[in-house]
Write a structure and sequence with these properties.
Layout (H helix, E strand, L loop, with lengths): L1 H48 L1 H12 L3 H29 L1 H18 L6 H15 L2 H10 L4 H32 L7 H8 L2 H13 L12 H14 L11 H5 L2 H29 L7 H29 L3 H17 L6 H17 L1 H6 L7 H33 L2 H21 L10
Helix pairs in contact: 1-7, 1-10, 2-7, 2-8, 2-12, 3-4, 3-5, 3-6, 3-17, 4-5, 4-6, 4-9, 6-17, 7-8, 7-13, 12-13, 12-15, 12-17, 12-18, 13-15, 14-15, 14-18, 17-18
Length: about 450
């Protein structure tokens, strides 16, 4: 009797210790890694989208039309997509610390050079090179998170990292507006200072990354030996559940139907999200001739604050219920509806409300969506698969802004272009709902 009681007590003690180790380890990783990765993404996204604010004065200076601006915004993603898969495979081989630091430093230098251009064609070249320099950063971080977090925690980890998109817009919008209105140092126009000043932090962050970012849990000085062993064991134990993913080569991964299904889904929702990111400042400016650039910056914050609340709540719900498809599809429908309805109103207040619903949808779905590849990919297959999905998804960064600019210039009404973004989000919702609950047992 006493022996049995001792066994139960011992077993209970081991369970409590295990739970304690789990809680402490996950908490340490979240606190140590996610704020830093989040900050890096803020810097990255500001450099990617600040061209939207620069356009408020740059387009007139350089004689850039709506269609040309769509190409300026979108050509970034040709360079970006060209090098994403090789970049992720190099990150997997070389290590995140060195490779992510390299990405940050090179894109910071190119971002600064964007402030020196004098023609639209020079800007095309620099924006293409900026995409080439930044290539692999986003899928690289997604891959990096799979080295640290179990599948059931990935939506929240990804969402906390991707909150950087919203914070970049929330902080970057008023700062960009203020720079445009007030920074004219040395007789140089403000949009040039905007691009230069917002490119410098990337170089500094690259240096910090080299010294602060551990490659994998085994190198983490902030974890104890017990915590390193626990998370390493947990991550290894998940691999057999990923339907033989570790038996699939990088080439075979790129031929899987499910990977391409996710890529097309990503393209259709990113069509809407990049349209919002690049065109929102100009759309808000068009609501009233009385809005200064500083006022536009403050108003642009509102939709992004709504999106910030959505990305946190939806990702937490997705992890809690272990459900991804509906948590991504429903926000896509909400956002698509808002984009379509924007053409039916000329009221600044109603337009701002609809922009807020559009932001709520396109940002809320990112956590659940980017957790889907981790359900069936790991190791080298994850490096290539995630990069492919990200590459196709980011092609929408060209297609969305360019289509809106082309349709707007052709019809004389940007709202028609916004409606095309809404239609794309409806397609995204349908593709999400067509996904099976889990990956099939064998690669296609």
């Amino acid at each position: 009797m006493s022996d049995s009681l001792a066994e139960v007590t011992t077993g209970s003690g081991s369970a409590i210790t295990s739970i304690s180790t789990e809680t402490k380890t996950i908490q340490k990783m979240r606190i140590r890694l996610l704020p830093f990765l989040f900050f890096l993404y803020v810097v990255a996204y500001i450099d990617r989208i600040n061209i939207g604010f620069a356009a408020l004065t740059m387009n007139k200076d350089l004689g850039i039309t709506s269609r040309q601006f769509g190409l300026v915004a979108g050509i970034f993603f040709f360079g970006y997509c060209f090098f994403e898969i090789p970049s992720n495979l190099l990150l997997h081989k070389i290590g995140a610390r060195i490779w992510i630091a390299r990405i940050l430093i090179t894109w910071g230098i190119v971002a600064i050079l964007a402030g020196l251009v004098h023609t639209a064609h020079q800007l095309y070249v620099v924006r293409f090179l900026l995409g080439l320099a930044e290539a692999g950063y986003f899928p690289g971080i997604l891959l990096y998170l799979t080295y640290w977090f179990r599948e059931k925690e990935q939506a929240r980890a990804i969402a906390l990292f991707m909150i950087g998109i919203l914070v970049a817009s929330i902080l970057g919008a008023p700062v960009s507006g203020l720079i445009l209105d007030h920074v004219h140092w040395l007789g140089i126009v403000s949009w040039r200072w905007l691009l230069v000043l917002e490119g410098i932090p990337a170089v500094a962050c690259g240096v910090l990354t080299y010294f602060l970012l551990p490659n994998r849990p085994a190198e983490a000085k902030f974890l104890t030996a017990e915590e390193k062993n626990w998370i390493t064991h947990e991550l290894e134990s998940e691999k057999p559940q990923k339907q033989g993913a570790h038996d699939v080569s990088a080439i075979r991964t790129l031929a899987q139907g499910r990977v391409w299904h996710l890529a097309l889904t990503g393209f259709t929702f990113a069509f809407g999200s990049y349209t919002l990111s690049f065109w929102l400042p100009q759309m808000v400016k068009s609501l009233s001739a009385q809005y200064s650039n500083s006022v536009v910056g403050l108003l642009v914050m509102i939709p992004n604050l709504v999106g910030l609340a959505g990305i946190i709540l939806v990702s937490r719900s997705s992890d809690r219920t272990h459900e991804r498809r509906y948590h991504a599809a429903i926000p896509a429908i909400i956002s698509g509806t808002a984009f379509v309805l924007l053409g039916a109103t000329s009221s600044p207040l109603i337009s701002l409300v609809l922009f807020s619903f559009a932001a709520l949808g396109v940002f809320s779905l990112v956590g659940p969506f980017w957790s889907l590849p981790g359900e069936f990919l790991s190791g080298l297959s994850a490096a290539s698969g995630i990069a492919l999905v990200s590459s196709i998804t980011n092609l929408a960064g060209f297609a969305g802004p360019y289509a809106v600019g082309w349709i707007g210039q052709t019809t004389g009404n940007l709202h028609a272009g916004l409606a095309s973004a809404g239609a794309s989000l409806f397609v995204s919702a349908a593709l999400l709902l067509l996904l099976p609950r889990r990956a099939s047992a064998q690669p296609q």
